[in-house]
Structure formats: C-alpha cells, structure tokens
Specification:
Elements lengths: L2 H18 L4 H16 L4 H6 L9 H13 L3 H9 L2 H8 L4 H12 L4 H9 L11 H17 L3 E2 H16 L4 E6 L1 H4 L4 E2 L2 E7 L2 H9 L4 E7 L3 E7 L5 E9 L4 H9 L2 H13 L3 E2 L4 E3 L2 E4 L3 H7 L15 H6 L14 E5 L10 H11 L3 E7 L11 H17 L3 E9 L10 H4 L4 E5 L10 H7 L7 E2 L17 H11 L2 E5 L9 H7 L6 E4 L11 H10 L13 H23 L1
Parallel strand pairs: 4-7, 11-12, 12-13, 13-14, 14-15, 15-16, 16-17
Antiparallel strand pairs: 1-3, 2-4, 5-6, 6-7, 8-9, 9-10
Bound molecules: 2'-deoxyguanosine-5'-triphosphate, calcium ion (CA) (2 copies) and zinc ion.
One calcium ion binds next to helix 11.
C-alpha cells in the first residue's frame, strides 16, 4: 500500500474505534472524510506536505497526524485505540449489517470480541436478548456474516476465470472507459485468487462509476469513490468474490498496472532496485526527484530500470528479477502456440461430448488435433472401457477422422492398478495413437512411486496424467519419490502432464519447476469431460508460464506430424531400452 492507502486505512480504523467507543460523531466523520479524500488524491500525500499545499477535507489536526505518520510510520492516536479496542472487533465491524454500534452492544452485553464470538451468540440465540434484535435484524446479520466469510475465502482461478473475463468485457464496453486490465493474482495466473483487482482509465469517473455499480450480478456495493469502487460479485455457481475497481490516469497506467499486479514481494524487490539506481518507484510512476522517468507503460518502467520486461505470471520474486537484469528471461509458451489438447473424454466413458462436439470445440480453439482419452475398464465409476468397446471406439474414430477437420487421436487414460500393472496389455496399447496412464485409487498415505515406475516399464505409456493427484480445492498430493519418477520419465521420454482442469492444475507451477531440471518434457490436457470445458487450456498454459516453460518444453506446441513422429520415436526408444534390459 502507498501512504495514501495506508493512512486511509488508519483513519478508517480510528473512526471505527471512536464510534465503537461512543465518541463525538463529528470527530468520527472528520476521520472518515479524510480517509475518502486520501483515497482520491492523484499524488502521494507526502507531496502535499512537502510542498506545503493544503488538501480540502483534511484539517490541521489531521494534517499533523499525517506528518506524524510520514515521519514515524505510525499515528499515536491509532496505536492507543488499538490498545483499547480488541483486534477482532474491527473484523466484526466490517461485517455487512453489523457496524460499530451493534459491535459495541454485542461486546458490552456478551463480550463479543471476534467473529467466532459473534457466531456463538447467533447460534445459541442469546443475541435475541438485545433490545431491538428481532428476527429481521438477526437474519440480516447472519446474511452479512455469510457474505463476509464467502467473500473472504480463496477461489481456484478456474472457477473465476471466465466470469471475470466477462465482467472485464462488460466494463470495457461502458462509454468512457479507455483502458482496462484485470491485475492482482488473477493476472499472475496464481492457482487461487483472494479477490479481483481491476484497473481502468477514464476521463469521466462519475458516469463510469455509476454504470459499473449498475452491472448485473453485483450482490452489494461496498464502496463507491472517485478512484475506487468495491463490490461483492456473484459468480455463476452462487459463490461471492470481492472486486476492487481502481480508476487511474492514463499517464500513470503502466506504474499502476505494475503496482496492482504485484506480487507484493515482486514490487518490493523492484522498488529496491529503483532505489539502488537513485529512483523512486510507486504506483504513479518512476521518478528521479520530481521528474517522471517512466509511468505510461510497464515496458518503459522495466526498461528504465535496466530490466527486461517481466511477464505477469513470473512476478513472484522467485528469481525473475535477476534474470530480467541479465535479459535472460526466455520467450514463454503462449496459448496460441498450443496446437491441440492431449486429454479429453468423450461419451464413450464418462465425458459428455460426442466426436462432433469435440471437433467443434477444437475448431474454436484453433487446434489441429485432440486426443480422445477415455478411461479404461477398472475405473468403473467413470464408465471405463472394456477392450471390446475400445476397439469399437477405435473403428468409429477411424471413420470419423475421414471427414473431420481436426484429427482426433485414438487415446486412452489407462488405469495404473494397485500393483502397478495396466488395464490393457501392451498389444492393445500399441494400437493406440497416444496413451495416458494414471492413478485414481490410492490407499491412505500410500507411496505410489513403485506403481509409476512399473507403469512406465510399458513402452507404450506416453504420458503420466495428473501426476500428483492433488486437487486445487483440497485433496493433498499422493506421495511419491520425485527424483525416481521424474528421472525415469526423462530417461524413457515419458511426458508429465500439466493437467489444465480447473479442479486439478497438476502438475502446477511449483511441481513443473521441480520436474524440469531432470530433463522432463510436458504435455497439456484439459481433462475436459463436460461440453465446453476445453477452454481450460489457458489455465494450464498459465501454470506453464509461471514455471517459465517455453514452447520447446511442451509437446502440444508441435504440429500433428511432428507430434506423431515424437510419439513414435519415444516408443521406439523405450522398446530399445526394454530390449536391452531383457538381454
Ligand atoms: P490475492 O488477492 O490474495 O489473491 O493476491 P493479490 O496479489 O491480488 O493481492 P491484493 O489483492 O491484496 O493486492 C493486489 C496487488 O496490489 C498486489 O499483488 C500488490 C499490490 N499491493 C497490495 N498491497 C501492497 C503492499 O502493501 N505493498 C506493495 N508493494 N504492494 C501491494
Ligand atoms: Ca487480488
Ligand atoms: Ca485486492
Ligand atoms: Zn484421470
């Protein structure tokens, strides 16, 4: 946060605390006004102080507190109030429908000092003992609490990706909006996002602001000011997420975008470099003294710092800054490099798409090929295919490909059984264009290293699908010996999947970075079961980019012929290794 934001937060907390303590309402209002004024300033407040410029809405006593903050990093009054008002009470006051007065009542009467305490008095219904707390009011608080909790949990990026792109599209169509970008963890393609940060530029903030808060699916507007609008947004499944829209100036666009894209750790590291070089970097621009060096675009700012442009997905302070200083960041893989999807399920097993539908969605994605990889028979819950059905499907697919505009590869997601053997024998696997092997049933705490090693003994296993088995929404990875598995995969030219499904992202960025040094290559698959799930490729590409992968690391960037050739070579290589072993 910059000084303006930090001070606004401090003043808001002072106002909350004063109100909670039942102090003079005029004083409370003065702090709140000052907080809003600070949020709306186009320059850092330190500039006004240094240049002795007055700020409308901030009187002498608050100006003294601002100076105190700029000098010491603290405001004594604030510190004192934090001593008097327990921390959890600020959270209770932030719940829609509660506010400082109700919080005070709850505290005095029942000692409510935290959200947990509030839940208790709601559950045991003691809250009804308060005068004026009828069913209507209590219901309102319960709803507010639910809203607060749901809006403060994290979401897998795949759950918010399309709705937020649609919201972006809607805002961009509002008259007067010049530029728009979704910043924050969303732009960095982090696997989960806490809230959504949108940046826009406009010359008509009032009209644009009015139009934004009137968009559909907005559950509640939390704040509507000249530079910031916050609301709770309803996602299609009913989940709620907070969205902060910041209105910035065109001339500050690059600096603001960089700032609000984060990560915070990246920002701090870049700011240190700026300082080393005698500059100052904030959300308005890169300055030397009072002169603007760069501010309009991110590219200009990185360049002025002697750095290569850093793609948002890398901005986590995980080594990207040193590489950028050495101009050594490679060209990352992009969605448009992807020529096909290497894991899709059809109606033959538990998928919902016919071959025609797969073709249609593949054309929308601009693909040359899709691997249709239905489950094998021991995965009964997923309609796994007996061999006879597999051959039936193979024949249907052969016919289909005669007129298809996208090559559908005959594939399977073959179950690796408890003992590491596969559902189909090599003679059958050999007939398939592409074979994914995966584990779905794992005993508690089972180490699956041996199952993977055994499965990879077949020359016809091309890909290990969703290798760790973890789910973004919760399930932990299956334990296995990374060194053994990744090393073997690299030696045998077995690909590790980057499963792009919203629920999986497996391997994710971290695991890709761990696998790559062994020489592993990767394949991307959406694991699409439902109609229209193939868009999720972008999520897998996001993880790949976060792991700094280039097109050369991923086989899906190959044309159809190159890919088929690669699979052929890899199988031959494995056959030779097996032959050597058997001799
Ligand atoms: P999230 O929302 O938890 O998934 O993660 P972010 O990265 O979107 O974080 P958020 O929404 O709190 O803030 C958006 C960006 O604003 C963040 O990535 C970097 C910037 N930012 C926020 N607070 C600070 C701060 O205290 N210092 C610096 N340098 N940057 C900050
Ligand atoms: Ca965020
Ligand atoms: Ca935010
Ligand atoms: Zn699977």
């Amino acid at each position: 946060m910059n000084n303006n934001q930090k001070l606004a937060k401090i003043f808001d907390e002072i106002a909350d605390a004063l109100e909670f303590l039942g102090e003079n309402p005029f004083k409370v209002r003065a702090y709140r006004t000052a907080a809003r004024v600070l949020e709306g300033l186009d320059r850092d407040i330190s500039w006004y102080i240094e240049n002795n410029k007055s700020v409308k809405g901030i009187g002498t006593s608050l100006r003294a507190k601002i100076k105190e903050f700029l000098e010491t990093g603290k405001v004594r009054k604030h510190e004192e109030l934090l001593q008097k008002v327990p921390r959890g009470i600020f959270e209770v006051m932030a719940i829609p429908g509660v506010g400082p007065k109700t919080a005070k009542l709850l505290y005095d009467r029942f000692g409510v000092k935290s959200i947990e305490d509030l839940k208790r008095v709601l559950e045991d219904e003691s809250i009804y003992q308060l005068r004026g707390f009828g069913p209507g009011k209590v219901k309102n608080i319960k709803e507010g609490l639910e809203l607060y909790e749901r809006a403060h949990s994290r979401f897998p990026i795949g759950f918010v990706y399309r709705p937020i792109m649609e919201l972006k599209e809607r805002i961009s169509r509002i008259d007067g909006v010049h530029r728009i970008e979704v910043a924050g963890s969303f732009r960095r393609m982090k696997e989960t996002v806490g809230d959504i940060d949108i940046l826009i530029t406009t010359d008509r903030p009032t009209e644009v602001g009015n139009a934004i808060v009137n968009l559909p699916s907005i559950e509640r507007v939390l704040l509507k000011g000249p530079t910031k609008i916050s609301f709770i947004y309803t996602l299609p499944r009913g989940d709620l997420i907070q969205v902060d829209v910041r209105i910035v100036k065109d001339e500050n666009w690059g600096a603001s975008l960089m700032y609000f894209t984060g990560s915070k750790e990246h920002n701090i590291a870049v700011r240190d470099i700026a300082i080393e070089k005698g500059y100052k970097l904030n959300e308005y621009g890169l300055y030397r003294g009072i002169n603007v060096i760069a501010s309009r675009t991110e590219e200009e700012i990185y360049e002025a710092l002697g750095m290569q442009y850093i793609p948002p997905e890398l901005r986590e302070n995980r080594g990207e800054i040193d590489l950028a200083l050495k101009h050594a960041i490679p060209d990352l893989v992009e969605l448009k490099d992807i020529k096909g999807d290497l894991q899709v399920h059809s109606i033959y097993s538990d998928g919902q798409m016919t071959f025609e539908e797969i073709e249609k969605y593949a054309l929308e994605m601009g693909y040359q090929y899709v691997a249709v990889t239905d489950h094998s028979y021991s995965l009964k819950v997923a309609g796994g295919l007996e061999e006879s059905r597999l051959f039936e499907k193979m024949e249907k697919l052969r016919q289909f490909n005669k007129h298809s505009r996208v090559r559908l590869l005959m594939g399977a997601e073959v179950e690796i059984r408890m003992d590491g053997t596969l559902d189909y024998p090599d003679e059958v696997l050999k007939e398939l264009d592409i074979v994914l092997a995966s584990v779905h049933n794992v005993r508690k705490n089972e180490d699956i290293t041996e199952r993977y090693l055994r499965a990879m003994e077949s020359p016809y296993v091309d890909i290990i699908a969703h290798p760790t088995g973890r789910l973004v929404t919760g399930r932990n990875p299956y334990p296995f010996d990374e060194e053994k598995v990744f090393k073997t995969a690299a030696e045998r030219m077995v690909l590790m999947e980057i499963n792009a499904h919203a629920n999986r992202l497996d391997l994710n960025d971290i695991m890709i970075m761990r696998a790559k040094p062994y020489g592993v290559k990767f394949s991307l698959g959406t694991d699409a079961h439902g109609k229209g799930n193939m868009w999720m490729m972008v999520l897998g590409v996001g993880q790949a980019r976060r792991a700094m992968l280039t097109p050369g690391d991923i086989v899906n960037t190959m044309n159809l012929d190159e890919l088929l050739d690669f699979i052929k070579k890899a199988r031959k290589h494995r056959e030779e290794l097996s032959r050597k072993l058997n001799n």
